[in-house]
Amino acid sequence: MQLEGNVIVCDSIDNKGIEILKNAGLNVEYLPEISQQELITKAKDYDVIIVRSRTKVTKEVINSATKTKIIARVGVGLDNIDTLEAQKKNIEIINAGEASVNAVSELVLGLMLSLSRNIPNANYATKQGKWIKKDLMGVELKGKYLGIIGLGKIGRNVARLARGLRMNLIGYDVVPIDKAFAQEVSLITTDLKTLIESSDYITCHVPFTEQTKHLINKEMLSMMKNGSYLINTSRGEVIEERALIDCLKNKKIGGAALDVYEVEPPTNKELLELDNLICTPHIGAQTKEGQELASTVIAEKIIQKLSERSQEDIKPN
Ligand code: NAD
């Protein structure tokens, strides 16, 4: 079935999804550099608006998007879309939650290994002509306790990968953790406080909500094991950054690795200058495979939704 309709792609996405949409008959405009103001002006022309994270689908954009049926986020979080306003206008919102699971999980392993073996500092010093081998005594992941906060799609995948590295797993979630899964990876389920106190590594995989804002705060950080490590690839707001800076400054914990920040890009020099902190620029989902999958998943979801709508339209009353 060939579809009709106009689609705007406002951020850079993998070409595969664009081809799928075009092959389905849709008219796709690829404007990955479009400014916020231009989008407000043009939004009225499109049935579907596709974004990643650069473009903000604000109330103003939604108000001018008078014929838009779908807003699609090629990724997971919907923080850049005014979902309430979209709901009011009966605009469907779709995302590609499945697509970045492996990409984020592998980054978590990379960050844990980087922290444990001091890889970023080792690289930097060696290239500066400094042979600092004696300062680079590392620790191994094997046999260490990894505390996973949030056992959703990414948390569960991290658990499976970490098990392959022979880590011991501790998990906490607000919803009951599936028993069969816990058994499969020998995961001990517990409350947040016990997880924090018992883990050598802690990794956060919760969404950003009112309940998860500063879930890891000063009190929680003070309960972490001396010399343990904290990794956050979820959302910056989940960790109280001010408290983390203090905790890293006084070397209470061994180090932290952040892919996400309270303000992105991060500007706080006090944070960025810490030598026991590893920073990456929100690259959790930034893999070739992840992006290709995300654009494909989104294109297929859009086609399915638009097909359902056109079937509805031709149904006799
Ligand atoms: P998911 O919805 O599959 O899982 C989230 C889990 O967190 C659920 O099991 C939920 O019950 C649990 N949870 C919610 N509130 C909680 C709380 N207060 N305490 C404990 N557990 C709680 O989500 P996901 O796909 O696994 O994504 C997890 C996080 O990763 C999200 O914040 C998402 O935005 C982020 N993410 C980041 C990147 C990146 O580029 N760094 C990419 C993709 C996803």
UniProtKB/TrEMBL annotation:
CDD domains: PGDH_2. Residues 109-284 form the D-isomer specific 2-hydroxyacid dehydrogenase NAD-binding domain. It comes from the Archaea. It comes from Candidatus Nitrosocosmicus franklandianus. GO terms for biological process: amino acid biosynthetic process. The keyword Amino-acid biosynthesis applies. Keywords: Amino-acid biosynthesis, NAD, Oxidoreductase. Residues 7-309 form the D-isomer specific 2-hydroxyacid dehydrogenase catalytic domain. This is Phosphoglycerate dehydrogenase. Gene3D superfamilies: NAD(P)-binding Rossmann-like Domain. Its EC number is 1.1.1.95. Belongs to the D-isomer specific 2-hydroxyacid dehydrogenase family. PANTHER family: D-ISOMER SPECIFIC 2-HYDROXYACID DEHYDROGENASE FAMILY PROTEIN (AFU_ORTHOLOGUE AFUA_6G10090). It is an enzyme of class 1 (oxidoreductase). Coiled coil: none annotated. InterPro entries: D-2-hydroxyacid_DH, D-isomer_2_OHA_DH_cat_dom, D-isomer_DH_CS, D-isomer_DH_CS1, D-isomer_DH_NAD-bd, NAD(P)-bd_dom_sf. GO terms for molecular function: NAD binding; phosphoglycerate dehydrogenase activity.
